[in-house]
Amino acid sequence: MTNLMTNHYEAAAVILFGIGFMNLLLSRNLIKKFIGLNIMDTAVYLFLAAKGYIAGRAAPIVLEGTTASVEKFINPVPSGLVLTGIVVSVSVTAFSLALVQRLYKHYGSLDLDEIMEKAKKEGH
Amino acid sequence: MAHVNYIHNIPFISIFLTMFGGIITPLFSNGKIAQKINLIIVCIVGVLSAILLGSVWQNKESFTFMMGHFPAPWGNELTAGPLEALMALTFSFVMATTLLGGAKFIQNDILAEKQNLYFVMINLLFGSMLALIYTNDIFTAYVFLEINTIASCAIIMAKGTGESIAATLHYLIICLLGSGLFLIGISLLYSITGHLLMPNIQQSIIQLTRTGEYAFPFAVVIGMIIIGISIKSAVFPFHFMLASAHPAATPASSSILSGLVLKSFIFLNIKMFYCVFTIDLIRNLRITNVLFLFGLIGMVVGSVSALKETRIKHMLAYSSAAQIGYIYMGLGLGNHAGMVAACFHILAHAATKAMLFICAGGLMSVSEGKDGIHDLRGAAHKNLMAGIGFTVGGLSMVGVPLTAGFVSKLYFASATIYSPQKMVITLLTLAISMILNAMYFIPSAIAIWTPVEKKTERPKVSRRMEIGIAIFIVTNFCLGIFYKPIIDMIELGIGLL
């Protein structure tokens, strides 16, 4: 329990990941599915950001007149990973929403089961 | 200046060339030029991979290539050994032959003004597969997994029908579940080990397992990463995405998807086993047993579903699910011989299934585009090469001697000797699955060769398709007859991973 309290960011991130994952897996509404995807990805970024932060330290930017010292800075690698991850997640979300839009125009529904049913009938 | 080994630049050049191809292809509004450029690039990559394979095979070495000459913990790395080079060579060979054989379908199925964009996606897809083969960094692997997902979705939906878009969405959702699990897995792994490069992670994992720290988190992380990649490679029960994606896509896309994309994920899984987690840890955590079980169920369920199908492309899609089951069964045996057999089956199935989809497309196109097996009666007489190709592919799937499928099944069966407790069930399932394979491939082969009464004019068949299928048939027999050097290469490659 104490572990959970000290690592509350990580615990929150994992709970959010679970919520997002189940939403993506189980929700029938396509828009909700992709909101789930975004919750899932954001949870991972929260986790990474929490992991990279070291209390009392600053971003690794060397200002004029100061000397660079490892002891002053947080770990910059997770921030880099978060940025890369955001780019990936934005592009995937844009792509999937474009697909959803085309499907809605074609079938007039956002319900995945209904769409698959209609698509099957069309294929026959 | 130190001696520069140009051969070591090949992995980077291959990836760069395909990505560069992806950038320049949209500049040509003519689909045919885009196609030619794409084919040339794939062939160049194939030749380069062959040179690389020759070199690493001769020197019996595996090397790492520093990107931008930043040393280990800072820079990004690529790594290549005999197994990676062999995979890259096979992928480029199958890719080139599929594009040659499937060119007609791409021209017919996809809108003329969008054909150049199709080849952008093919380039990106090929580049991402090469990157998954060569990368030595798990976050790079994640980024290329997502590029791979988007590009493969784009080639499935290229036909633009409602059915294909619905199938794409289904495929996309399952892929995203897999990559989500992979992403949280590597984030956790990074927080435990503090590294992103595979060799460094492996060192700290070995150290931590020796002290017994973090035993439980490791089990969770390994589970997430391996399950994430397995979901993407359509292991049972996630093979349903194949069933809808393949029939809706153009035959060339189906070939690439089933023959190559799924295999690149499986290869990433093998890399994770050997380069990140160490095979002993995977065995101790009994991950291999889980994969073994799902592989076996997939083999039977996939074959039974294929048996029930009356439409040829659905049948081939379910058959792919069964073959993926074979590969996971080989990985799940957990011994060296099983891995070798699984790697060989990756190559054999890549060559065979790509041919089967092209042939099925060829047979359908001479039967007014209908895909029911009873509609295809006599189709082989109208398109001789596709008929022969389909028959050879079917025989290879069943495991008839002299074909590629026979060799992999032989090696799967002999690998069971090293895992006695799994021996009986593996051999039984292999036998059942082979009988089921025969039960659906032989009737469809008979159906396409059954002569029909009415004499109709023989439709014109694309010359390029015939050449493509002929190359595939020859490859299949080559794999089935001259398999020894390839097995040696795989054995050396796994040892050097």
Spell out the key features of this protein:
heterodimer, A: 124 residues, mainly alpha, 73% helix, 0% strand, elongated, B: 497 residues, two-stranded antiparallel ribbon, 21 helices, 2 strands, globular
SSE topology:
The complex is a heterodimer of chains A (124) and B (497).
Chain A: H1 2-6, H2 8-26, H3 30-52, H4 77-107, H5 112-123
Helix pairs in contact in A: 2-3, 3-4
Chain B: H1 10-24, H2 31-59, E1 63-66, E2 77-80, H3 82-101, H4 103-109, H5 115-134, H6 138-156, H7 162-193, H8 198-211, H9 215-232, H10 240-248, H11 251-277, H12 279-284, H13 287-308, H14 312-332, H15 336-365, H16 379-382, H17 384-398, H18 404-415, H19 423-449, H20 463-481, H21 484-496
Antiparallel strand pairs in B: 1-2
Largest sheet of chain B: 2 strands, antiparallel
Helix content of chain A: over 70%
Strand order of the largest sheet of chain B: 1-2
| Mean pLDDT across all amino acids of chain B | 90
What is the CA–CA distance across the termini of chain B? 30 Å
Low-confidence residue ranges of chain B: none
Q: What sort of overall outline of chain B do the alpha carbons produce when their principal axes are compared? A: globular
Q: Number of helical runs of chain B?
A: 21
Question: Low-confidence spans of chain A: pLDDT under 50, at least 5 residues?
Answer: none
Order of helices and strands of chain A: HHHHH
List the chains of the largest interface with their residue counts: A-B, 40 and 33 residues
SSE pattern of chain B, N- to C-terminal: HHEEHHHHHHHHHHHHHHHHHHH
Oligomer: heterodimer
Distance between the termini of chain A: 57 Å
| Helix/strand class of chain A | mainly alpha
Find the structural class of chain B using helix and strand composition.
mainly alpha
Rg of chain A, alpha carbons: 21 Å
How much beta of chain A, percentage-wise? under 5%
